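Sequence only, no structure available. Ideas?
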Amino acid sequence: MIKTRILAFIMSILLIPIFLKAETYVLNKNFYAGFSLGALSPNDVKVEKSGAGVINGVSFSANIAGNFIFDNGYQVGGVLGYKFNNFMSFESDLSYSNFDYDKLELTVAGTATVGGNTFTGTNNTTYDIDGSISAFSMIFGPVFDIDIRENFEFFIGGGVGFARYNDEIKTVGGSAGLSFDQDFTDFAAKFKSGFNYSLSNQTYLQAEYGYNFVDSGIDDYSEDFSANSFSAKIIFNF
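Reply:
I predicted one. Tokens follow.
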């Protein structure tokens, strides 16, 4: 259902040029590339395991429920795009993200075992986590520019692609009973908006807000991952 809504959003914004008459700041060439640096703020991920089972190599012997909470992280990347006209472009957005686990808030106690180590949780208790997630993603989609002033414009866009990431937990509450180290590749999508400020015909600065989604949910265990990102970019025309 979430994938369908995201794809519907991407298709709907493709219709924007029919209704817009924008005189954006004309760039010198159609192809452009840039670099970005920013911060990533992950949202909590709810986990809920009903009954015994094995997830990511970890054996759960009973029900367990709670929330994984993450620290803010960083995101670096690049963009390669082609400008079709004064208000529509198509971009390939590449990024590398890294952030740490912070805590596990358990609402329903449970027991987890891996490699002879056992983690036993307690109801309504918070545990520190030693772990991290690093990810590489590629997102492809349209971007639309709306002129505000001579060299200042608003943009909105979105796209779909994939995220390849490493998910590692070393300890929870000092115990390795919930530890794992796994690599995944999942469907990803992004909505973005922000402002461009042109320095010249060949160069402009960009401030971007992004809502990032990864279809990382595991049935009968965890929901999908999402995060807010804030980045600054410098863009050059070929």
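Helices lie at 2-13, 16-19.
Hope that gets you unstuck.
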